[in-house]
Prior knowledge:
Elements: H1 3-50, H2 54-66, H3 82-86, H4 97-102, H5 121-132, H6 139-150, H7 153-169, E1 187-189, E2 196-197, E3 203-204, E4 208-212, E5 217-219, E6 224-232, E7 236-243, E8 247-257, E9 266-267, E10 272-276, E11 293-301, E12 306-309, H8 312-325
Antiparallel strand pairs: 1-4, 2-3, 4-11, 5-10, 6-7, 6-9, 7-8, 8-10, 8-11, 11-12
Amino acid sequence: MQPTKRFIIATMFFVIFSISLAQQTYAQAEQEETILQKRLALYKKMEAITHLPWYYIAAFDQYERNTQENGDDQLIAIKFPDEMWYGPGNMTHDTDERTIAFFHGIGKDGNGDNKADMDDPEDVLYTASLFLLENGPSIDDIKISLWNYYQRDLSVKTVMNIAKVYQHFQTNVLLDRDFPVDIRYNYSYRSTWGDRRGFGGRRIHEGTDIFAGYGTPVKATTYGVVELKGWNVYGGWRIGIRDIHNIYHYYAHLNGFAEGIEIGDVVKPGDILGSVGSSGYGPPGTAGKFPPHLHYGMYKDNGRNEWSFDPYPYLLKWERMAKQKR
Length: 326
């Protein structure tokens, strides 16, 4: 076969594969958007009934989803412990509200069928809404309710951050993503998670290094809230964002921060956070001990503890998405 024919056939296969992949990706995104819209309709229905803003209900549910192995497959992820729902002593798990109230359970009937069914999304969300309002309707009151449930500061903080993002954008349908450095600039990266590092003692590399020139814009990859900003001995000028999926995104070795960005700010994919630098490995202001690059790390919280995981596969996906947008 002549080289030209081989090239044409290879090109055709590549085009067919690319179209098939794009169609599959679009179908998945469409399916995900549909279930998010169904959840949003339920959240807003509960807001109308209980007067608790929908984004608190949605954030509570989303946080629970993030802590579960198959949370994305469920319409509603909140699941109260049996003893809490039915009440201590309600051994038969009677769903009659009067029985549950007699045994001091919290389960409520949210759809008017005279049953407080833990498998019914409306009953669960109605009960969850009343639980969040147990101490009052203010933000501090809701935090107290969340603390009583989780007994963990990070869990309360994360739920409130998710609510803040939903309130800011007035939706839970937030599917966009972006690559952490501007793809119009020269950059390179490979999988470096787990590599050994020596500065400050023997440790593993908890992220991916993206090499680029000084001043290359660094961008938010997802929707979230700025949780941390400042200097770190290892990371230099760094910024941390907690997203709506209980994931902490860590950007290190920056040359500087974007003007006006502060802790508590809500960000979206593509927002400029700062620029690539070589800061770190010493006291504030130390720079130039290594080539300029962005250290990008991701840390998952499951409601009990937090750990680092490899961001490389996500970076590949987000890079493709960023290029498709162009």
